[in-house]
Amino acid sequence: MTSVAEFPPIHALHTRRSMKFLRAPAPRPEELEQMFQAAMAAPDHGALRPWRFKIIRGQAIGLLADMAIDAVKRSGDKRMTPEKEKSVREWMAGVPVFVAVAQKIAHDNTKIPEQEQLLATGASVMNILNAAHMLGYGAFWSTGLGTYVEEVQEALGFDPLDYRFLGYLAIGTPACAVPPAQRPDFREFVSEWTGVPA
After folding, report:
1. 81 Cβ partners below 8 Å, 6+ apart?
2. Which residues take part in binding FMN (predicted)?
3. pLDDT at 4
């Protein structure tokens, strides 16, 4: 397994990309701990720590596939065709670990807007994705598998009244070589405000 640890951290940030097709080996327990600890360093207004994670691995992945696919079908989503179900199951069978992601809603907090809590959770996920890459693993943030179906969220233990479910991280060893992503030039997205009206 190739690690980017020997490169400067900025190189790792520049070269990270999503990798959907993964296989064993999964990160070792201490490596998963490093990824989750990286999540704790996310910017977080008010130190609410709204992120919540659940690790899904081993036989639980098959149970997740059964539960989520059945729930999506019951929801009436016509996109879950037999062909789609087959491809989803095959993909999930290859992934060694999933992490379900949710934002805990701070109902009693009137100071920190909910969108800032959501942004903090997203930042924590980005830290996990970067940490996975720095440790030589591939990762993919998926909002498939019934992310927007309440039955799935409830089955994972995230009551929709108290949590916003944000999908899953698939983490493992890249199953095939992935070419570097072609990134746009940052100058297309950056401008400078000088105080003078445009």
Report:
1. none
2. 16-18, 45, 141-143
3. 60
